[in-house]
């Protein structure tokens, strides 16, 4: 029985992918690397440092940068990203998400967040949703990012439930792999999962309850 729902953030609750893309593209250009939107898709759901390493490897310059360099470059990207986030508002919640969250709450279903973004609390405040989330897993406190299952396990722990009583919602293959790695039932938004939906507007308690059958 579903007692808790664990959301990814980007591409499920809101879409800040455009901001990530602008910030990564600008940083890559400074380093003499050109990336496009197709390459940016491969960064979906991947932690910041791993994304940067992927960009450096793509540009064939990984060996030029020390771990300290990489940390400072990742921080630089994040500062630009945070400036871009200032534009975010309640209007940027994806279709049907707030209604779905309200439906879950009215049925006493716990809500957790399993996002690799350290900016998740800031984003949820901008969207005026933070008070509706029972627990936000801290990505800096888990050993491995997606596709490892650690952050989903932590989110389930945070809402006080066994994995078998939870369902996770993702839009990235790495996230679905993470859920499968801990036997959490999965809903995919535009990505293959235990239950695959075309968009967030299709989400409802009745729809995800199909996973109980």
List keywords for this structure.
single chain; 213 residues; DNA polymerase, domain 1; 41% helix; 11% strand; globular; metal-binding; phosphoprotein
Topology:
Elements: E1 4-7, H1 17-30, H2 37-41, H3 48-58, H4 67-85, H5 97-106, E2 110-113, H6 120-126, E3 135-136, H7 150-158, E4 166-170, H8 173-181, E5 185-189, E6 195-197, H9 205-208
Parallel strand pairs: 1-2, 1-4, 2-3, 4-5, 5-6
Helix pairs in contact: 1-4, 3-4
Tally of strands: 6
CATH fold assignment of the largest domain: Rossmann fold
Distance between the termini: 9 Å
Please mark out the parts with pLDDT under 50 across 5 or more consecutive residues, or reply none.
none
- Into which percent range does the helicity of residues fall? 40-55%
Second rung of CATH, namely the architecture of the largest domain: 3-Layer(aba) Sandwich
Give the helices and strands as they follow along the chain. Answer: EHHHHHEHEHEHEEH
Mean pLDDT: 96
Binding site for Mg(2+): 8, 10, 170-171
GO molecular function, one term: beta-phosphoglucomutase activity
Keywords: Carbohydrate metabolism, Isomerase, Magnesium, Metal-binding, Phosphoprotein
Site (Important for catalytic activity and assists the phosphoryl transfer reaction to Asp8 by balancing charge and orienting the reacting groups): 115, 146
């Amino acid at each position: 029985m579903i007692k808790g729902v664990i959301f990814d953030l980007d591409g499920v609750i809101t879409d800040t992918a455009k901001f990530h893309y602008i910030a990564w593209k600008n940083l890559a250009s400074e380093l003499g690397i050109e990336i496009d939107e197709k390459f940016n898709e491969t960064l979906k759901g991947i932690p910041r440092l791993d994304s940067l390493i992927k960009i450096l490897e793509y540009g064939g310059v990984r060996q030029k940068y020390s771990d300290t360099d990489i940390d400072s470059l990742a921080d630089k990207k994040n500062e630009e990203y945070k400036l871009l986030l200032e534009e975010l508002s309640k209007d940027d919640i994806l279709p049907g998400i707030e209604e779905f969250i309200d439906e879950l709450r009215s049925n006493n279903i716990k809500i957790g967040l399993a996002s690799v973004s350290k900016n998740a609390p800031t984003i949820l405040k901008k969207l005026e949703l933070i008070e509706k989330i029972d627990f936000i897993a801290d990505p800096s406190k888990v050993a491995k990012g997606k596709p490892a299952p650690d952050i989903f396990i932590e989110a389930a722990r945070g809402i006080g439930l066994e994995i078998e009583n939870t369902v996770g919602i993702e839009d990235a293959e790495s996230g679905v792999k993470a859920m499968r790695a801990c036997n959490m039932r999965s809903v995919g938004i535009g990505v293959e999962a235990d239950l695959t939906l075309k968009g967030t507007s299709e989400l409802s308690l009745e729809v995800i309850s199909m996973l109980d059958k």
